[in-house]
Amino acid sequence: MGRPFRQALGVELVLPSNLDTDSLGTFTGERARPADAASTCRIKAEAGMASAGLPLGLASEGSFGPHPAVPLLAVGHEWMTFVDGPQGLVITEQLLCWRTNFSHCLVGPGEDPAAWLQRVGFPTHAVIVRPSGPGGAVAKGLQSLEQLTTALQWAAAHSHDGRVLLETDMRAHLNPTRMASIRRLAFRLARRIRSRCPACSAPGWGWVDGIPGLPCRWCGEPTPLTRLELHGCGACGHQHPMPRRDGMVKADPGQCPHCNP
C-alpha cells in the first residue's frame, strides 16, 4: 500500500505499533467483525488514526468464499478505505479478486495433503491447522514442513475422529497472492482520491454502485449483469451513470434468464 500512495499522492504510511486489529475480527473465527466488511474497514482506519495521532487514516479488509453465482469458484472481496478527519471525507474502493488461493482440506489418518499444499502455494503461503469438529484451538501461520508436521500431530490427537482440517491463512502478510490484490486496490484507491467530483470538486469521485440490465447478445432482453456504472461523490452526494469500464455492451447468453433459464 505504501508505494501506490507515495507515487500518486506523495504521502508516507505510518503503521501504528500498538493497534490490535484482531479485536476487529479474525479469519479463524475467534472474534467476529463488529460490523460488515466495509464498515469495519472504516473503523479500522479510524482506530489507526487514533493510535498514531494522525489526521489521515488508511485500512484494508477482506472476505473470502464461494462466488455468489458460481459456488464452485472461490473469490476474494477486498475493501480499502481512506479517511480524512479534518475534511470529514471517507473514500472507499473495492475489488473482486478472482485470483486467490482460498481453500481448505480435510485430512484423515494416513492421508497425505501434499497435493493440496502444492496447489495453495505452501510454504510461501502459510496454512492453518485445526482439529476437525466445531470450536477448539487453531495453529496459524505455518510456513515450514516442520511446523506443519507438529501441528498435524497435535490436531489429530485433539480431534474427535482423528481427522484434521487444513485451511489457507488469508492474513495478508502471510499470503503473497492477497498482497498482490491489495497492491492493485491501493493503486485504484489512490487514483480515486485524485479524482475530483464534477459538481463540488471534492476528492474521491468514482464507482458507488452498478445499474443492472445489460442486454443479452442473442435476444436483447435485460440480464442481471451491470449495464451502467453509477459514479458518485461522498462529499456532496452527486451521482452520474457511466459506461462500464470494461467496455462490455452485451451479455453472454449463458447469463440471460430467457436464453438460459
Notable characteristics:
261 residues, alpha+beta, Dna Ligase, domain 1, 3 domains, 4-stranded antiparallel beta sheet, 3-stranded antiparallel beta sheet, 5 helices, 26% strand, flat
Q: Tell me the series of helices and strands, N- to C-terminal.
A: HHEEEEHEEHEHEEE
Main β sheet profile: 4 strands, antiparallel
* Gross morphology: flat
The total of helices stands at: 5
Strand order of the largest sheet: 4-7-5-6
Question: How many distinct domains?
Answer: 3
Q: What percentage of residues falls in helices of 4 or more residues?
A: 10-25%
Mean pLDDT across every amino acid position? 94
Q: Structural class from helices and strands?
A: alpha+beta
Low-confidence stretches: none
> What is the strand tally?
10
**Rg on CA atoms, Å:** 22 Å
Percent of residues in beta strands: 25-35%
Distance between the termini: 43 Å
